[in-house]
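Continuing the batch. This is chain 6 of the set; chains 1 through 5 are on the previous pages. Same settings as before, nothing changed between runs. Recording input and output for traceability.
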Amino acid sequence: ETSRFHVHNVTKKDTYPLIWNLTRFHPFWATIEMTMGIAAVREVMLDTPEERKKATVDPLYFFAAAYSTLLLRLTSFDFNDAMVRATLFVPLYTKFLTAVHRDCLSENPSPITRFFGSKMMTYLGGLAFPMFILHGPIGQIFYKKALATRLWGKPMPTSFFPAYLAICLVCSHFLNENFVKSKKVAQVAGKVAQWLASKTEGMLQASPELAAELLRAVARPVKNACPRAHARRCRRRPRFVLCVASSGATRFKPDMLW
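Output for chain 6:
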């Protein structure tokens, strides 16, 4: 039913795929995709010093392979978005991310790794989460028929999309600068982490101050940080060290206490 609707553009109400939302939002399938990401992170965490010295595969190959799977939507095969995403795109893109991680730790990163580690791409990456939060509500204002009709007389046309994208970028910038990077927000996050640590078992309870430090590290940008200097701040807990890669992205050493 879902395939017929998305591939063959069936528009009758009696054939609308009610199971589509159950498919893409179902906790079971979401758990599988999250598990793939967790497994990928754990895999690079367990890299030994000998493995890190080995030549890495150019991440460009995995990047091209992941996005080429989208072309299957244009073929005569009965593929839809859920099939392509879950079985091909997510595994290949996850492999691309692990390849980029290993490559950025090498002495001579590939061009695509240097590109994604550039100042502009790092800035846009910082807007990813704010845009994820804002694009839906902003889209409702311009494209939700009931709301857009009352505000603008009709939903915005396709030609309005560049303006919609620019509005999302501007709003994401202000949210990132005034909320995500806010020291007050970081302090509140630290207090929440400490409260959770007092109510839960496991890593947070074992190290509430470190959990607060991790949340503060995520909430604030780290610019031009030296990995050794950053690690010294956590030297009191040598088994659980947060350090910063040369590209500016945070990562965990393999000996972290999980």
